[in-house]
Specification:
The complex is a heterodimer of chains A (148) and B (144).
Chain A (H helix, E strand, L loop, with lengths): L4 H12 L5 E6 L2 E10 L10 E7 L10 E4 L29 H13 L9 H9 L1 H15 L2
Antiparallel strand pairs in A: 1-2, 2-3, 3-4
Chain B lengths: L11 H13 L1 H12 L6 H5 L2 E3 L25 E3 L7 E3 H10 L10 H19 L2 H11 L1
Classes of the chains: A alpha+beta (148), B mainly alpha (144).
């Protein structure tokens, strides 16, 4: 199946006009599979970290959301230990008017504002709510250890 | 009735095929997705009665938010607007598969069936308020 124009256009723009702090590069042998990096946002526990993710565009895209997963280990209440992300726009709130760049921006924003009330990683969320200082220290520690 | 459970190790392909066919069935998708939206998409009649937009009305260079192509690029462009906002325009070809699965506008997430229903109710109410024989006669004159 040939690659839809929309995907080609999105890819070109991701490369020519990248989102600050985000890179997304398609594999040359599979243009639906992207290597992604997201810089940890300033004044978050992920600051100075460089997080690797994988992003895949299913055949049904954009009728369904891209599949995105963290490859770098991260301590975050909405990201589980397999790197799966709990984010509304990747699930029920996907819209075909959203794009790869808007999704990656949302993930970057999720790093700035964790939401422990809608957790995917329950233990992390509990810690985030009950022992916030410790949770943030752990997140910083993991960032230094794994995200560089 | 008894089920023959295939030996998983020797029948991985068969199992995969069965799983795939189950997962790709629209019924399964509705069951799986039921929790999130609780509603499936619109029917064909809804799609057939969407307002069609003439190319003259569209700003130059405007694009379909779904395929991101210029509305004028197709050979036979067929553009429609959703009831939520007159600016929410899409290629019919692009919006149809989405609305068949979801009732929401891709741009504002409004339930398009609810919006249309409310609009119709509003029109009926207005007609009743302004109503009376006078208006009816006036209405007929238009066609006279």
């Amino acid at each position: 199946m040939s690659l839809p124009k929309r995907i080609i256009r999105e890819t070109e723009r991701l490369i020519s006009d990248p989102v600050p702090g985000i890179t997304a590069v398609p594999h040359s042998d599979n243009l639906r599979y992207f290597d992604v990096t997201i810089q940890g946002p300033e004044s978050s526990p992920y600051e100075n970290g460089k997080f690797k993710l994988e992003l895949f565009l299913p055949d049904e895209y954009p009728m369904v959301a891209p599949k995105v997963r963290f490859l770098t280990k991260i301590y975050h209440p909405n990201i589980d230990r397999l790197g799966r992300i709990c984010l509304d726009v990747l699930k029920n709130n996907w819209s075909p008017a959203l794009q790869i760049r808007t999704i990656l921006l949302s993930i970057q924003a999720l790093l700035s504002s964790p939401n422990p009330d809608d957790p995917l990683a329950n233990e992390v969320a509990e810690e985030w709510k009950n022992n916030n200082v410790h949770a943030i220290a752990t997140a910083k520690e993991w960032t230094e250890k794994y995200a560089n | 009735m008894s089920y023959v459970v295939p030996d998983a190790e020797n029948n991985t392909d068969l199992f995969q095929t069965m799983l795939n066919s189950l997962l790709s069935s629209p019924d399964t998708m509705m069951v799986l997705g039921g929790e999130s939206k609780g509603k499936d998409g619109v029917d064909n009649e809804f799609l057939d009665t969407l307002d069609r937009v003439s190319l003259k009305e569209l700003p130059k260079g405007s694009r379909c938010p779904i395929c991101t192509n210029d509305f004028r690029s197709g050979e036979y462009p067929l553009v429609v607007r959703l009831p939520c906002d007159s600016r929410h325009c899409f290629d019919l070809e692009c919006i149809s598969p989405w609305l068949k699965m979801n009732r929401t506008c891709p741009l504002c997430r409004e339930d398009v069936t609810e919006v249309r229903q409310k609009k119709l109710e509003g029109l009926v109410r207005k007609a009743k308020e302004e109503g009376g024989e006078e208006d009816e006669e006036e209405g007929w004159e238009m066609y006279g």
